[in-house]
Write a structure and sequence with these properties.
The protein is mainly beta. The chain folds into 2 domains: 14-47; 58-230, no CATH class. It has 2 helices and 17 strands. The protein has helices at 14-27, 116-121; strands at 38-41, 44-47, 58-66, 70-78, 84-86, 101-104, 131-136, 151-156, 167-168, 172-175, 184-189, 196-202, 210-216, 218-220, 227-230, 233-237, 246-250. The strands form 5 sheets. A 5-stranded mixed barrel has the order 3-4-6-14-11. The relative contact order is 0.14.
Length: 260
């Protein structure tokens, strides 16, 4: 691509006109940048494909910790016997261990954007399509976002069809569950920048309440089709002719067959 000629000067009537043409061409020439690289060709220019933009990167990760909206993972490979070949072999692993990658949960499994209390605080409508969601920490970490938030209650806000004001459904849990130190996920890195930015507070063992910010650019592709399902319930039953306590595990999605 040939460079623009310099501005012309003089008293000729074409001087002003030629300089205006030059200015118009200059204003319409794309500027090279990190976000949008430009290839300058002999007869023009074209946007240069940014590295990684042509196709997303999909990698395997081993889940080490389950947090409210994301997972703390490390890169992993698997051998023919299903063994996890980890990158980080020194244990125990802490949130500050070098080499860890923070990966967003699938949107439907997150607390943020779904929990009705959080939506109200954010100025959003608490209900989604007529339902409200209460998602529980189900953990003991003092820094709340470090709890898994893997259980929830769903409430139908208009239960008129069932002759009730509202209908509380059974508690639900994520299934299959994320098992720290075992679950392997497929994740992809987004090309549009960070999905979310999170702040973790190091309460223990650091007594200074150190805060660390992380921009999360990876997201779990949910190849295992994880979702919230009715949680199992332990029910005490009476068995004819038997003594002692007998129990069964049930959940609403299970199929049962009556036995004689």
């Amino acid at each position: 691509m040939k460079p623009l000629p310099p501005q012309v000067s003089g008293s000729h009537e074409l001087v002003s006109w030629l300089n205006q043409i030059r200015q118009c061409v200059e204003e319409r020439t794309p500027l090279d940048s990190v976000e949008c690289p430009i290839d300058k060709l002999p007869n023009g220019f074209r946007p240069k494909p940014k590295a990684g933009a042509a196709g997303t990167s999909v990698s395997l990760f081993l889940v080490e910790m389950v947090y409210r909206d994301y997972l703390v993972c490390q890169p992993v490979t698997m051998d023919d016997d299903g063994r996890r070949v980890a990158t980080i072999t020194t244990r125990p692993i802490s949130p500050l261990t070098a080499g860890l990658v923070r990966i967003a949960k699938p949107d439907e499994l997150r607390y943020t954007g779904w929990d009705s209390t959080q939506r109200s605080i954010a100025g959003l409508t608490p209900e989604i399509d007529g339902y409200s969601y209460a998602i529980y920490p189900h953990g003991l970490a003092l820094d709340g976002i470090k709890n898994p938030y893997d259980q929830r209650t769903v409430t139908l806000m208009d239960g008129a069809e069932y002759l009730a004001d509202t209908i509380d459904f059974t508690e639900e849990a994520i299934w299959p569950k994320y098992v720290p130190g075992h679950t392997v996920i497929c994740a992809t890195k987004t090309t549009g920048g960070a999905i979310m930015t999170v702040t973790e507070t190091e309460i223990e063992p650091i007594a200074t309440l150190e805060q660390n910010d992380y921009a999360i650019e990876w997201v779990d592709l949910n190849m295992a089709a994880r979702q919230f399902l009715p949680a199992y319930r332990k029910v005490k039953v009476c068995v004819s002719g038997q003594t002692g306590n007998w129990y069964v595990l049930i959940r609403a999605s299970d199929a049962f067959q009556e036995e004689a």
